[in-house]
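Structure request: Retinol dehydrogenase 11, Corymbia citriodora subsp. variegata.
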Amino acid sequence: MDDGGGGSSSSSPKSPKSPDSAPEPKPKERKQKSGLGWLEWARGWMSVIGEMLFQRIMASHLENPLPLPPVNHLTCIVTGSTSGIGLQIARQLAEAGAHVVMAVRNPKAAQDLIQKWQNEWSGMGLPLNIEVMELDLLSLDSVVRFADAWNSRLGPLHVLINNAGIFSIGEPQKFSKDGYEQHMQVNHLAPALLSVLLLPSLLRGSPSRIVNVNSVMHYIGFVDPEDMNLVSGRRKYTSLLGYCCSKLAQVMFSSVLHKRLPAESGISVLCVSPGVVQTNVARDLPRIVQAGYHVIPYFIFNPQEGSRSSLFAATDPQVPEYCELLKADEWPVCAFISQDCRPTNPSEEAHNVETAYRVWEKTLEMIGLPSDCVERLIEGEEITCRYGGQ
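Returned structure:
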């Protein structure tokens, strides 16, 4: 796999256990937990701090912007693409020749951006092939309407990049109109619904990919499948807790989806960490933390640097081979690409297979899909979602 810096490595990326060694037995089911142990919690924070302090060194081999392989044949949907990492992903894919769909809550802002990009691109090649579709992740009805509109085109989708997310540190607990904690809905439930509903188009675009922009913060997350809304009171709600739980739930759901999709579908599922990035997310941080973002700019990526792992996961030609290698090896988690565009291991809790399947089942229940939705969509059947405003 290309190391992301324009050169090529001597071998394909490998799971944390080498695929050349004898397969290890599947992890045993674990007893139900009520939270992270102190050692897991400490290791998680060490991962978060280590990424912030050393990410620039670890990614020093990467060029900026990241050189992309030919993508003229790709159609890509990028959520949350009017600012930050998503903006960079959409623009770089479009300038490389891809057909890009900006799936955004504010279509006018996206149209203004496109006009600006077209003007700046004028004379450098064909006009950018980029369009806008409205999508509000705080409304599951909006997600269903978006998927229905796209699938009705009966065209291929090659890459879905679930980039949009929220991190409202310091804010009180808030719920969407669907009744779900906002971090959980925007960062996990809505992207999960979108990914499943777009499977027919992803099948038409096979080989295709679902790229979920995750976070190293999932290392300090813990998900209780019976309390994904964080309302039981067993854990005191903080926005940090809501964010970390939503990101871990996304990794767990992605891992089960990765296993449920048969190899012949040609759909790869990945999570990526962009690193610690200066984006509009920082506007929700406490002032002292925002000040830190400006005091230590050397350690923090700008959005273009933060976009590299997502672009790598979306375009590197050896990614499908790596994903299938993990599946054949019965590795318990999906592919996870770090901010340095290299495969890495998600958190220890992400390997909890029993909890991952419970998160899968609870997620499908929350987003109104039948338990066999993936299998039915793969077979070409239609499914019914309780959302969509039909």
